[in-house]
Amino acid sequence: MNNHDRASGVHALESEAAFPMMASRVDLLSQVLMLIRLRGELIFSSELTAPWALQFDAGSAYFHVVSEGTMEVRASDGRRVTAEAGDLIVLPQGSGHSIGVDGATPVPIREVLEAQMREQLVIRLGGNGAMTQLITGAFRFEGDNMPTMLAVLPSLIHISKALRSEEEAWVEGIAHFLLAEARVPHPGSSLMISRLIDVLVIRAMRTWVRTAPPEKRGWLGALADIRISRALKAIHDEPFRRRTVAELAAIAGMSRSSFAERFATLIGAAPLHYQTRWRLLLANEMLKGPETRVSEVGRRVGYDSDAAFSRAFKAQFGYPPTQASRGGLSGAP
Fold first, then answer.
1. pLDDT of residue 213
2. Residues 6 or more apart whose Cβ sits within 8 Å of residue 187
């Protein structure tokens, strides 16, 4: 997700033969996340007394670690959860959300931050009721592939302390170090914060796959579905091989119709559409390499002509592959 991760990923993608070797070592979630990068923007803590509510506008993605008390979280798509002390909430899509208690009218977070946050990195809001304490972080996913990849993530990830084993104190530990880096900046603090948020978000997704009810996992649920994950692994292990729905269904050990329906339900796209989209995402990364030729990349990902590759690429990203190529090389030598 950060630049060092992207560099290692692109190196592997530059060789069709090397990619299956990488895929045998890297799980599917890592393969997806390496195509987007994360940049931390802001860390602060909150002391909130009931009644209170805060509105977070669309733009940045956020996470909240509840240190004390409870709160209700409402995502932009209407999904609601109640979070308690020790819980982690991640809202990766950056589509806006609100948090609060006792039905208070939400106050825009930007107004509170502008009015209160100075060197102490603490905001206070509310009345004379029960206390809720939070550690909140804002971050953004970056990269040309970001819109496509972000769409497959849940609107809200809730990691309950009750679902974590006693030894899993990673939420509190990462949140503590994040706040410490923000409070007393040192050389490299910005990079440290981004890397720590990287770890927190990836760990949250991994825990979500393992603990959330299947109907709430969204695309991540496909990674925990034994049969569908077999087909996904086949696509990711050999991304440039064209497979039919029947072939993928056989790998999953399902009938063609049952496989296609289950795949579309979990992934949000038909099997062949996902296969094509994944190849184009990899092509987009390969085009960023030095002196990469569009025609060469098109052939490598399975297109017989430059025109067919260009049409598919533009339909996916909204711009032609020549625009994505760092070197702007489009023809053969």
1. 65
2. none
